[in-house]
Amino acid sequence: MAGGRSYGNPRFRSPIIITLLFIISLLIYISLSPSRPNLPSTKSQVPMLNPTVDYSFLTSLQKFLSSPSESRQYRDDSVANTASQADVKKLDDLMWRRETEKLYEDSAYPGVSVVRVYVYEMPDKFTYDMLRLFWNTYQETVNLTSNGSPVHRLIEQHSIDYWLWADLIAPESQRLLKNVVRVYRQEDADLFYIPFFTTISFFLLEKQQCKALYREALKWVTDQPAWNRSGGRDHILPVHHPWSFKSVRKYMKNAIWLLPDMDSTGNWYKPGQVSLEKDLILPYVANLDLCDAKCLSESELKRRTLLFFRGRLKRNAGGKIRAKLVAELNHAEDVVIEEGTAGEVGKAAAQHGMRTSVFCLSPAGDTPSSARLFDAIVSGCIPVIISDELELPFEGILDYSKIALFISSSDAVQPGWLLTYLRSFGVAQLKKMQMNLAKYARHFLYSHPAQPLGPEDLAWRMLSGKLVNIKLHTRRSQRVVKESRSLCSCDCKPANFTNSRPLS
């Protein structure tokens, strides 16, 4: 057509054909290209330290002790009066009336689970005075335990009692955790928190003074109506250091103990005192700094040591495995085994060692557990756990097989077995475990305010799961004739059912 465009003309057809051919070629290339795995974003998995959050025990404690205390009433240092049976019965009626109401209120919302905690306001000598004692003396690093570890560093490692309590009593507007609330009436409570700093008192008081304070704390708590109502089954007692509260804890064996491990060898806890059914394992406070996203990226090519360990090489009980491991691993290629303690020099050496190693050895010590495991996790070093009696924190929530290797003691000491096994891991396997370590690290970082999915949060999730069983044993203990049969315990001993009858 005169004066118009002729699309049949090759002059105009060529650009269209070229464009179509380019698009078709691109699609063919994409379809034939090898597929790439959808790797999780490292950025989303690596915890980043929030500058507005305190992760340091000393920093947080300094702010805590210097904060305004207008809302805190003076606590009388006198011991509480012994609860009468009428007081106990009154509280029991109120609590079970509230439980019945809650049962029907929540029946339409089965997924909702909030733990309600009543925090005892104990005399200052059990709480604030203990924290001030630590604060006023923590710089005395010459104060060492018999094995050479700084006392105040040990207190920090076991400071779970501070982190949980500080979060519970903080103003509600400053708290981030929504699965636990503080209540101010005992009848509204699911659990009762005992804020006594057992580890500080053990290490920083004279022996007789400490025992006397333990006896006072025992009497104060066991005189409470709520304790007498349940026999202490719904009370939380932080005894995270295995030596703490030892002289009187047999009288509080029904309570929920917050522990570093179970130690079923019997060296630290008497039979029947601890069990996974009633107690809760909480992680040590890590001694080393978090290796964040930048650190993990920078340390990736520096991890040239296959296996690293720094610590006391001679230990008691289950820790005797260390001497055997040293004999097996000493002078092996790509392996670093060092004697050391938890002072500032030791911390720097351990941090450097863990950040330049692929695997970190975590053998049993005097107890099955140690802070070394959590140091390795926050350092991005894959833990090699050789502790046959070890129990782990939050194992109902976390899968440790994704971040750690579990080796039996018998296998570990076989000549050449351990190193051959570690060297059998491929690059892809190691990378996956290191990415999981980056993801899991947040679960072991205590902080104030407590963070969602941090150890405080997971602790309350675990305790929430125990509530039904706690209430079962509480109500059952109130109706069973104690003289006629053994009460149901965690020891799995057969009971005599012949002469039992319910209370009339």
Automatic annotation (TrEMBL):
* A GO MF term: glycosyltransferase activity
Residue ranges annotated as transmembrane are 12-32
InterPro entries, sorted: Exostosin, Exostosin_GT47
Q: Does the keyword Amino-acid biosynthesis apply?
A: no
The residue ranges of the Exostosin GT47 domain are 115-421
Give the CC-aspect GO terms.
Golgi membrane
Q: Which UniProt keywords apply?
A: Glycosyltransferase, Golgi apparatus, Membrane, Signal-anchor, Transferase, Transmembrane, Transmembrane helix
Q: What is its main location?
A: Golgi
Bilayer topology reads:
Single-pass type II membrane protein
Spell out the coiled coil positions from the record: none
What are the subcellular locations of this protein?
Golgi apparatus membrane
| Presence of the UniProt keyword Transmembrane helix in the record | yes
Q: Give the PANTHER family listed for this entry.
A: EXOSTOSIN FAMILY PROTEIN, EXOSTOSIN HEPARAN SULFATE GLYCOSYLTRANSFERASE -RELATED
Q: What does the similarity note say?
A: Belongs to the glycosyltransferase 47 family.
Protein name (Swiss-Prot/TrEMBL): Exostosin GT47 domain-containing protein
Q: Which organism is it from?
A: Daucus carota subsp. sativus
